[in-house]
Specification:
By secondary structure, the chain is an alpha/beta fold. It folds into three domains: 68 residues; 250 residues, Aspartate Aminotransferase, domain 2 (3-Layer(aba) Sandwich); 114 residues, Aspartate Aminotransferase, domain 1 (Alpha-Beta Complex), CATH 3.90.1150.170. Helices cover 40% and strands 9% of the residues. The chain has a seven-stranded mixed sheet, with helices on both faces. It has a two-stranded antiparallel ribbon with strand order 8-9. Strands 10-11 form a two-stranded antiparallel ribbon. Strand 10 and strand 11 form a beta hairpin. Helix 1 packs parallel to helix 2 and helix 11 crosses helix 13.
Length: 474
């Protein structure tokens, strides 16, 4: 096979293997292991040198689909609890296929008014869903990390401006270190964003009143006062990955107002607390933030590479990421938005399509119902842990994360970390359910997150059963 031009009359045929496999694959997700390591031998069929003469689209895609449906980690299924990962609702998956079909260059209004308009619509819908003011600016990003980069880049530009500098044009040279304060709940992606921005990964200071990482407000206020009026950035955390714990965002907003600081909120999955009246109090104060980060491929259940960044002053996005001075790039105005001038990406796919599809398909009520089902599922898992004589719940179940460890009677404390680490390895190797370990308060723990749209109580019950079965073999 040579130039793909020769396949232009048969372009749709390349999609047929995917379409044929989609139904059986999706219908079988609930019953298959999350990962079958014996299937890794199939990887060899994807290896080898680059062929001089290709085998054609249909044959190549057929091979990829056959190997992929067998050897993939089935993270879109209901029993993937490792990290904080959602799946893809039927509408979101179809929306993503539509994005690939139309293949829009979504950065400029000129290249795709459709993609730009849909992005504007979904940003408005997301602000409604989260209770953010409609006046906030926003942009879709590939991830929460990129959303942090977006919001914190705006914070950096604001902070430099307070020092009389234009960091967008001139960089950080000659400026002091930007003070960034947070609690012990801060996520590594915030530090990574600061690293990318040249502010330094380890310059962020945490203020903790206990070994759970909860914020010491008095100590943070003392540090802000010690700056003598110089500006700072406060990072509030809504939904911590080990326990689902959150900072008191309203109180941090009070501090930010009192000392003229920029308030950035990391709501990667915790922003969805705002969707339910049962948990909305955790998000109270977010509407006062200067910038807010959230993720789509977590609790919204859209395909991977989906994040959101919202900024109180919409003009900050354009000042931070626009004004390239490239004559070939057209300006836009009004509803004609160039989203590549509002965020770190220049080349962008139409990632708004799956978000539009799932929000349109299920609406505010459907997403509230899904979030509340996951809250119930997680609390059910918490009760199962508490009722088991050999499991120990280590934190209250607040959102969709349950933090616990295996603690059989008679095992000394100093041996529990090693035992739980081995059990975590055995659980991942087994593959029927997927939930690895983390470290919390010096303990090796499990912290499964139930936020896949398919997940039910039966799935978390299976996690407990498999975990205790494997533990009995150790």
């Amino acid at each position: 096979m040579s130039d793909p031009l020769h396949e232009r009359e048969r372009a749709a045929a390349a999609l047929e293997p995917v379409f044929r496999a989609a139904g059986p694959y999706l219908e079988g997700l609930a019953g298959r292991p999350v990962h079958d390591r014996s299937r890794d031998v199939l990887f060899a069929e994807l290896d080898g040198p680059l062929p001089a003469a290709g085998e054609g689209a249909a044959a190549a895609v057929e091979r990829l689909v056959r190997v992929g449906t067998a050897a993939a980690t089935h993270s879109s299924g209901p029993r993937f609890f490792h990290f904080v990962v959602g799946g893809s609702t039927p509408a979101a998956m179809a929306g993503d296929w539509t994005a690939s079909l139309l293949d829009q260059a979504a950065g400029l209004w000129l290249t795709s008014p459709l993609a730009a308009r849909v992005e504007t619509v979904v940003l408005g819908w997301l602000k409604e869903l989260f209770g953010l003011p409609a006046s906030y600016g926003g942009v879709l990003t590939p991830s929460a990390t990129f959303a942090h980069v977006t919001g914190l880049a705006c914070a950096r530009a604001w902070w430099a401006g307070r020092h009389g500098a234009d960091v967008v044009a001139d960089g950080l040279a000659g400026l002091p270190r930007m003070p960034v304060f947070s609690s012990g709940l801060v996520h590594a992606s915030t530090r990574k964003a600061l690293q990318i921005l040249g502010c330094g990964r380890d310059t962020l200071r945490t203020f903790e009143r206990d070994d759970r990482g909860r914020v010491d407000l008095a100590a943070m206020e003392g540090a802000l006062a010690a700056l003598g009026g110089d500006p700072a950035v406060i990072v509030a955390n809504l939904g911590e990955v080990n326990t689902g714990d959150s900072d008191p965002i309203g109180e941090l907003a009070d501090l930010a107002e009192r000392y003229g600081a920029w308030l950035h909120v990391d709501g990667a999955f915790g922003m969805f607390a705002a969707v339910s009246p049962r948990t909305a109090h955790l998000a109270r104060g977010v509407e006062r933030a200067d910038s807010v980060t959230a993720d789509g491929h977590k609790w919204l259940n859209v395909p991977y590479e989906s994040g959101f960044s919202f900024v109180r002053d919409p003009a900050m996005l354009a000042r931070t990421f626009g004004s390239w001075g490239a004559a070939y790039l057209p300006d836009a105005g009004g509803e004609q938005v160039n989203y590549n001038s509002l965020g770190p990406e220049s080349s962008r796919r139409a990632r708004a399509f799956p978000i539009w599809a799932t929000l349109r398909a299920y609406g505010r009520d459907g997403h509230r119902e899904m979030v509340e089902r996951h809250l119930d599922v997680s609390r059910h898992l918490g009760r199962l842990v508490e009722e088991a004589p050999d499991l120990e719940l280590l934190a209250p179940v607040r959102l969709c994360v349950v933090c616990f460890r295996y603690r059989p009677p008679g095992v000394p404390e100093e041996e529990l970390n090693g035992l739980n680490a081995r059990l975590g390895e055995a659980l991942l190797a087994d593959g029927r359910v997927y939930a690895g370990t983390s470290t919390y308060r010096g303990m090796t723990v499990f912290r499964p997150a139930a936020l896949n749209w398919r997940t039910t109580r039966a799935d978390v019950a299976a996690l407990v059963e498999v975990l205790r079965e494997l533990a009995a073999r150790l």
